[in-house]
Amino acid sequence: xxxxxxxxxxxxxxxxxxxxxxxxxxxxxxxxxxxxxxxxxxxxxxxxxxxxxxxxxxxxxxxxxxxxxxxxxxxxxxxxxxxxxxxxxxxxxxxxxxxxxxxxxxxxxxxxxxxxxxxxxxxxxxxxxxxxxxxxxxxxxxxxxxxxxxxxxxxxxxxxxxxxxxxxxxxxxxxxxxxxxxxxxxxxxxxxxxxxxxxxxxx
Length: 203
Hints:
Layout: H1 2-8, E1 28-32, E2 35-36, E3 39-40, E4 43-47, E5 56-57, E6 81-83, E7 92-99, E8 107-115, E9 121-122, E10 137-138, E11 159-168, H2 180-187, E12 191-201
Antiparallel strand pairs: 1-4, 2-3, 5-6, 6-9, 7-8, 7-11, 8-10, 11-12
């Protein structure tokens, strides 16, 4: 079903690949904004306030490859993620996981926000619920579901999966079920630092 959903966008949208963020004092992070059925055509700008970065890592990945356990071919559990301390002014953290290599354009796999600034990791298998025990909220992915939806690419080349963590100077207080577009809009001008991790999966 997941594969069919990805293919259903093909021919409706022609997606743009997300470039990597440009680091610097006036750094600009180019992120997809316009969505139609989970397909992203346009791009908007989220302004980062500084050149501070966080290190984002995962003990779940093997040589930057995503094991089946964390995909639709396995248990579809979210992987372990860990990161270094954000800037002291951080009020909340947000996470986006996207696949820019999907047939119809960038595919959103996870939208997570209002993580407490004291959090330093996510365990394997985060519950697919609107609210988490630490006060975090989860948005809707492009499978139309709440929480994490693992890689589910069509047969062919390996796809890249971008895990991006943002340290924000505010708590967003978005309602649960927010989309990537809504999260990006809310983050605009509030990013203090970010971390990025890229892993691959293919069939």
